[in-house]
Amino acid sequence: MSNHWSQYIQSAEELYRSRALRFHAGNRALWLRAIGAAEGMDVLEVGCGSGYFCHHFAEHLPGTRVTGLDADAGFIAYAKAKAAELALPCDFVQGDALATPFGENSFDLCFSHTVIEHLPTQPFLLEQKRVLRPGGRIAVLSVRTNASLPEHGMDGASPEELALWERLWRAGEGKLPLQVCAYPLEEREFPLALTAAGFRKVDVQFFCVSSYAPDSPQVPPAMALEQMEVERLGCVESVAKSTRLAPDALQPKERERLLTLLHARFDDRVEAWRRGEQRWDLTAKLMLAATGVK
Ligand SMILES: C[S@@+](CC[C@H](N)C(=O)[O-])C[C@H]1O[C@@H](n2cnc3c(N)ncnc32)[C@H](O)[C@@H]1O
Predict the structure, then answer these.
(1) Residue 136 burial (CB < 10 Å; 0-12/13-18/19+)?
(2) pTM
(3) Which of 98, 109, 191, 266 is the most exposed, having the fewest neighbouring CB atoms within 10 Å of its CB?
(4) pLDDT at position 177, please?
(5) Dist. CA 101–CA 103, nearest whole Å
(6) Residue from 5, 11, 94 to probe ligand 1 pocket by mutation (most atoms less than 8 Å from CB)
(7) Range of 287's domain?
(8) With contact defined as beta carbons under 8 Å apart, do 103 and 133 qualify?
């Protein structure tokens, strides 16, 4: 157990705000239906990160009892603090998805989003089957990165900025203290794996979430601003995370210069949006939702 994920991969805030952009009021009915979540359920989110989905279930599905489990102490602390701030009744537990502290037949729904690819498939599924009640559902969400539109975090970066990024990233190569995406699955392997784990009524659905389209008239101004600010946050956090991995890659002055350049770039993007200058940078992700019944 550690806080490696929140230190080196995605910070708690970055994760939380990016999920809020992917899964919002506009597509809530779609994805809650896809995973089979309903009011009054006992829900376990496995690999809950900083807790966005748990908070979402507690807020929008009355009577739901929600538990989030994650290995990362930083995420669990953030999720607990945010639940307290929002006055949402969720429990958060630091633990291992492959050996949870819960008894058999404890939950009606086990949910995960972008977790399965990081863990051995069958142990991951079988532990959820163990804690599900008979008739309970598993819902595994996975982003199909081979079928997603690109991110725009580096749009418009100058050669000077790109050169600083290159040095920072190159110096950190091979230094991650944890394995990410060590167990990738192809689309057809999801239903096959659920069936092999003994789930019934196995199904796979796809839906698309657009998390970045600031010029779209369907995106309210506050959300458009948040979309650009989350892109900015991703870049700022990337400097911090890469510096943790390779503290000597850039001199402090160079690091400051990189931050200045990236802030100027995002300020320019926001200003263009305020002026009504449309750039139509867009991001969307194809989601796979694999479900089954115990
Ligand atoms: C890509 S993040 C997704 C987090 C969250 N589901 C979300 O989408 O916001 C993957 C998560 O899996 C967690 N994780 C990885 N291995 C784990 C394990 N063995 N037990 C529990 N959590 C684990 C990480 O700490 C991280 O929070």
Answers:
(1) buried
(2) 0.94
(3) 98
(4) 87
(5) 7
(6) 5
(7) 4-293
(8) no
What CATH number is associated with residue 73?
A: 3.40.50.150
Please give the tally of structural domains in the chain. 1
Cα distances from 163 to residues 151, 166, 236, 259, 260, in angstroms, run 19, 5, 16, 13, 14
Residue 163 tokens, joined: 């050169």
Say how many Å lie between the CA of residue 139 and the centre of ligand 1.
Answer: 15
Confidence of residue 1 (pLDDT cuts 50, 70, 90): low
Distance in Å, CA 228 to ligand 1 centroid: 25
Q: What would the two tokens of residue 150 be?
A: 């690109």
Atom of ligand 1 nearest to the CA of 50: 9
Gap from CA of 105 to ligand 1 centroid (Å)? 23
Write the pLDDT tens digit of every residue in 53-105. 999 999 999 999 999 999 999 999 999 999 999 999 999 999 999 999 999 99
